[in-house]
Amino acid sequence: MSTTNPNLPKSLQALRSYSKQAFLHDLLAGITVGLVALPMAMAFGIASGVTPQAGLYTAVVAGFLISALGGSRTQIGGPTGAFVVIVAGIVARFGMSGLAMVTMMAGILLVGMGITGLGAAVRFIPRMVVIGFTNGIAVLIASTQIKDFLGLHTPPVPSAFLPRMQVLAAHMGTVNWASVGLGLGALAIMIVLPRINKRIPASILAVVVCTLVSLFFHLPVETIGTRFGGIASGFPPFAIPTFRPDVILPLLPSAFTVAMLAALESMLSAVVADGMTGDRHNSNVELFAQGVANIASPLFGGIPATGAIARTATNIRSGGRTPVAGIVHAITLLGILLVAAPLASYIPLTTLAAVLFVVSYNMGEWHEIGAIFQMDLTAISVWLVTFGLTVFADLTVAVGVGLTLAALLYIYRVADTTTVVPVTDDYIRDGLPHVLQGRILPPYVTLLRIHGPFLWGTTEKLVEATADMQSFAPVVILRLRNMTAIDATGIHAIERFAKQLRASGRTLIICGAMLQPSRLLQGARFVQRVGEENIMPNIQAALDRAKEVYEAQSHTLAD
Fold first, then answer.
1. Are both 139 and 56 inside the same structural domain?
2. What does the alpha-carbon distance between residue 548 and residue 559 come to, in Å, rounded to a whole number?
3. What is the residue range of 530's domain?
4. pLDDT tens-digit series, residues 13-25
């Protein structure tokens, strides 16, 4: 079978032209991302209500399988913050056997999505819902780390947000200032170091430095050893989880939520990787690999896994070129488990809490909130309801209600922008500057058009139409005369397209937007990213602007 088959794992496709130089790049990147993943994996395990080694086992087993079988060349898999809240709730209610069942059921759902081609359905989750529950998850993760960061002495902390905050507030008098100092030191390292040197893994340096400080000064802080008894050396232990038929139905909603979160985050991570590398992932192959990884993870004491955006970006920035880097990342973590696991018992929990504070901030997509408030009230309400339900109810309810509201909003947008009006002389006259017939496109222009509503669920069409960007002319005009409606997902897609064109040395010009799209495209962020000078009222003005851009580029090259 040819390794050029697009449905083969990317690892097999990469072997066709693999070289010694590529291996050296992958080796360095894999070791680097393995070190970055070490504190995160332990922190995600602890925050999920399980042991730190459960997080490590997940990173080793799932990380290896996702890279070996996946549809992305540079995706790194493992435990992520998306699952922390739901995993902790499952463990509290059904124990580890319930969590194992949920993880394997979610894995089966993911395999089914990959085999049947439903991987593409993930794009039908609107951006407002994605941002809403991402913001909510970030807040929940941060709230679960306050106790360890401050070194509080409390009774068992509730899983619900408000009761948790009430318990923490009632025991603020038990703050351990040594723990606070170490945590602040770890935060300082992780915030400052990337601005000085991005190649040094800030999280692992923060953990090492703070652990050494704790040991040298004999600080009275809680560590992995004092709470969990340390981490045993050796391979992840294989054991078939206890199967409980009586809880299958109660666990189905949680399994569905885990599967959707895994699919969504892995696809988001793969899209980020594509944007950084110029590659194109296969969503169905990737979801199949995610499913296999989640079926296998509980067999080795692990928890749910998916693609990790931060670790994937670290892999690419470190020089990772193929899935071999992800495999090396898993082997690196396994080597640490075999050789240095006992040393982890000295790690202060406050430093891992600091790691998760940084993770929760980075995953929160807080920069998107300003753009959200430039949308109309209906779009803002979808985000707000999803965010509120994620924090104060649970993820299953939040996603379900958010999707329902978004579907209603979709219908409203289509209905609101559908018009039936008489054709008058003024209408014909106003339309003349937009007419394409009789115009000759210069060779330095590529003209694209969007026809119909450009809302969540349709934005992938832009990605598909612009996959071969190298064939485009120096100036690309995106004609919106027949685009009847747009939402936050559509705006984000055009912004991303503009960024990709700019990275390739090309310029995007927008023209002819109708009333509803024109109003939303006037947002400050969109104007800044596309350029006010590149937003034109009609095709003639866009062609005039394209001529200016091309002549300016020609003069620059001549100089």
1. yes
2. 17
3. 431-558
4. 888 888 889 999 9
